Amino acid sequence: MSFEVRELRAGDASRCAELEQVLFPGDNPWPERVFSVEFAHPHTFYLGVFDTETDLMVGYAGLAMLGRPDDPEFEIHTIGVDPAYQRRGIGRHLMDQFTHTADTMGGPMFLEVRTDNAAAIAMYESFGFTTLTTRKNYYQPSGTDAFTMSRQPRTSSPERNGE
């Protein structure tokens, strides 16, 4: 089985919403319209992973760049993998793409993750994320807590160093 990574477009919003319903059923999964708005925002970047045999989107993730271009911060808005395709490195590949972007631009990254999602937390920690704080009742309507995690860039851009 092989996969292809592509930037997501408006036509991909319905599949993202389908996956959200499966992955986050008790925590207000994003509807199609929210994905459409996110895809159109100039400071967000959404990627999808597609099974090349079926052209089915099997994973997706969104990254926002906040702040000034010469002093950016990055926030992972969402990341999800179809349960039938989990444990195949798809989430890790999406994280590779996003950490590379943040490292190239020299900006720290932030995200929220359910405190009970041990697999995601372990993956984020393997990328150098550390827990900053716990946000009580962050996910609604379930009331599940979230960790806010951050990661400093591995490199920094010449602009940030004054070069």
Name the descriptors.
7-stranded mixed β-sheet, alpha+beta, disordered C terminus, single chain, Aminopeptidase, 4 helices, 163 residues
Protein architecture, described:
Pfam families: Acetyltransf_1. The chain has 163 residues and is of the alpha+beta class. The chain has one domain: Gcn5-related N-acetyltransferase (GNAT) (Aminopeptidase, 3-Layer(aba) Sandwich), CATH 3.40.630. Helix content is 28%, strand content 35%. Helix 1 crosses helix 2. It starts with a strand and ends in a 12-residue tail after the last strand. The C terminus is likely disordered.
Short description:
The chain is an alpha+beta fold and 163 residues long.
Describe the protein's topology.
Layout: E1 3-7, H1 13-23, H2 32-40, E2 44-51, E3 56-66, E4 73-81, H3 90-105, E5 109-114, H4 118-126, E6 130-139, E7 144-151
Parallel strand pairs: 4-5
Antiparallel strand pairs: 1-2, 2-3, 3-4, 5-7, 6-7
Mean of residue pLDDT values: 92
State the fourth-level CATH superfamily. Gcn5-related N-acetyltransferase (GNAT)
CATH class designation = Alpha Beta
Model regions low in confidence, pLDDT < 50 over at least 5 residues: 157-163
* Rg measurement, Å: 16 Å
Alpha-beta classification: alpha+beta
Helix percent reads 25-40%
Name the CATH architecture. Answer: 3-Layer(aba) Sandwich
Number of E-state strands = 7
**Count of the domains:** 1
Q: In percent terms, what proportion of residues is strand?
A: 25-35%
Strand order of the largest sheet: 1-2-3-4-5-7-6
Topology pattern, helix = H, strand = E: EHHEEEHEHEE
Ends distance: 44 Å
Number of helices: 4
